[in-house]
## 1
Amino acid sequence: MSISDVRKPNKKNMISGINSTWEVVVGIEVHAQIKSQSKLFSESSTSFGAHPNNNVSLIDSAMPGMLPVLNKECVCQAIRTGLALKAQINLKSFFERKHYFYPDLPQGYQISQFRKPIIGEGKILISIGQDKKGEFEDIEIGIERLHLEQDAGKSIHDKHPSMSLIDLNRSGIGLMEIVSKPDIRSSQEAKAYLSKLRSILRYIETCDGNMEKGSMRADINISVRRPGQPFGTRCEIKNVNSIRFVGQAIDYEARRQIEILEQGKQIHQETRSFNAEEGKTHSLRSKEEAHDYRYFPDPDLPPLQFNQSFVDQLAKTLPELPDDRRNRLIYDMDLSPYNASVLIAEKTIVDYFESVAKGRNSKMTANWIINDLLGALNKRGLSIEESPISTNQLGMILDMIQDGTISGKIAKKLFEIIWNEGGNPLVIVEQRGMKQVIDSQTIEKTVSQIIEENPDKAMQAKKQQKLVGWFIGQVMKRTNGQAHPEIVNALIKEKLQINT
């Protein structure tokens, strides 16, 4: 298989060495556990967290005479993923046996797809930025293939002093291996690619994308070269389970390879691991090639075939995808590209946004969700599903800002109260006397008092109008933030005889 080089060198991605600059070339293989009730070739449950070896059938444990039966739902999920990746759907594909020995692989081989996978070439569009001008760079990353295969079991090495234990609950769970082309040129692009892929999988609900639980794992192929030269020898970093760690692994491995090459030595193709505590990669073994796995067609499984009408029916089940939703937020709801990108990153977040924004100011809604709600959630390590503030409660807060019942400052206090105590925002504002003061006579008395108490600053403000802000702050402080800011501003300028 020939590998095309479609990216032109970009100065911002170059890495400085001792004698020259270098370019890192990255391709990523993602193993995504298919979201289904049962495994790829058996009826065993795929539930996470079950007691060890509880979700294991005779097929999963490779008992003699057991024959695999393909799970139709896993096939459908793979096709839906292929459609979302704008990829070629192969109406005929084959299953093959990939031979290698590992203690948690009972069969001694893995049922996979090699020569003819279910999904062919596709693409993902990632956005890098913002730059100093507030603009994003859109980059297309090619997808080489997506194929179906079984997951292996899990070896546990820390439960017994002299033996390793095997848990086969994961053995046989359906995986989609999604292989990118070597189109990635930086750790930043790699993280953006994985984030976008995970977002797509979650939108279409074919994988939950939970890297911490192992339902999405990344193998990173990394090489370096001088700009314009052919691809270098690559090393593969196995089973990285965090997008942040992927970035760290690429940065370290690129530097390691550059150092070796600048010493006049060669890179040896090998498989390595990433130690997150050290921030370093370590050699595991020499890298296997396809012939090492002795692929041959699985005699127990016929070719996988379906027609175009089957694909067309699955296409109708796809939701609005992240790129389409982002464009709608920008062009139909007048959001900035940045705000739209933040909101569409997770389907649950943009669903929350659209629920609150219905019939309200979309820009104000986006700002409150991104700056206040997501900020509070991130600070406490919570997801949007765990938010103490419902869409209805946040909507009420925004409505009261819009109709002048409360000011933005009061709204911040109300947000904290709802976050910590819950309750109806309308009732809380009424009971706690948090309404904004809009009576000009009441505000005028406070303005006059503060001007009388600060004659020197009043004289200065007539010459330096920026001091008006100081007077506004004093009024807001004395009224506990309840005075209407526009009325306060107008009254101060009137009293100080400042022309606007």
## 2
Amino acid sequence: MKRVLIDTNVCIDFILKRMPNFVDAKIVFEEIAKGSAQGLITASMVTDIFYLLQKANGKGKMSFRFPTSVRATLAVAMNDMDRLL
């Protein structure tokens, strides 16, 4: 299976439905959900995304749910280069 390192902005575009990049981000997440690829983010990206969502939404519910949805959809690579490659 292909492993894909997802950029922070791709995650933010998908969650916040930011156009025009939401369309492409949705395709990436759909492929991961179908099992066509394994989506990876780094451990530091979890906190970066959480912070950016809070900043975009205030301290809304979406930002607090996001880490749970990350665990459900993406694997967190623990800064181990072998795991990323």
## 3
Amino acid sequence: MIARKFSIRLALLLLGLWLLVGCAQGTGPVVSGSPMPTQRVEEPTEQPAPAPEESLRLPTPPAEETPSPAPTAEETPAPTAEETPSPTPSHTPSPTLAIPQTGMTDPVPAPYTRPCDRPGSVQRLAYDSRDYAGSGAAIVKTAYVYLPYGYDEADASTRYDILYLMHGWTGHAGEFFQYGAFINILDHLIANGDTPPMIVVSPSFYTENSRTDFDASMDALRLFYLDFEAHLMPAVEGRYFTYAASTSDDDLKASRDHRAFGGFSMGAVTTWLMLCHDSDYIRYYLPMSGACFYYGDYDDYQTERNVDHLESVVRDGDLNDRGYFVYHAVGTLDAYREQSVLQAEEMLARGAFPPEHYVFYQRKDGRHDRYSVDEFLYNALPLFFR
């Protein structure tokens, strides 16, 4: 058992090193520990904001910043521009589009990987939080926020769906906007009407000085939901125009139909845990190349016990009636495909996860890399917020 555990940890470490080298060469996958240079810098228009940020295409390492003020016990109103009329939806939500419950993903069309003539922008946002996996002390964290083309900081009447995306092992905030073609794909999906305009947030389960070894990373991601509920979600949605009428708990829950969460590798593990903890706030989920580790982890995967728990989450939360949708994806050559397949087979065999709520898709010859991530996002996002 010890030898097996050591071999799995060693394989993960070697994969992490390969990912890091690949990204540095410009051909590797999403996961990396070092940010890339800033490109296409734009100045945001002036708007009352709780935190300073700079508009940028690719994030830079965060310097010391003034964080967003923490929400008070009283509800914090959503951002306004003078007297704000009732929010005008940017689209009319409808039931999730019907697709087969299992299948293979479609390749990303080549034009979608190239720069779009209607690009969005990315801003850096500092916010107050706590070191939940460490001392519990007050800290400042950073997230990066994509705003779609046409987002108007003076137009508080138009509201946007929001997607949070979590990186994998040794990753960092903002990396979804740095590596791969995702930001171009997102621009094209929105410009071509494949998906409604949305705000996308790239945060981190790490803190500035946290350890990034395997065990410390698992500890951090298991507690990320606390940061999300109390700090990240209120900071982001108190700053940008989402469907939340305010940052009160009731208003955040009332807008769950317009909120999604996804992630790659350990970010996929985080996504499954968000379903377990935060289904009151989130309707759509995109776990990419990772299984649910509510119980166990890579060394001790407990398929039936984890699916038992997911079934209880759906049942106890009345999610079949309230609505939820999981797009579960993995590559056929992914080094960690087995656990995703075991979980998918168990979920499909039970009949408790119908196709309107759960689908499982694979990328032909897909590996544990940024190319698979881009393809999963291209296939899944048009199914969200419909």
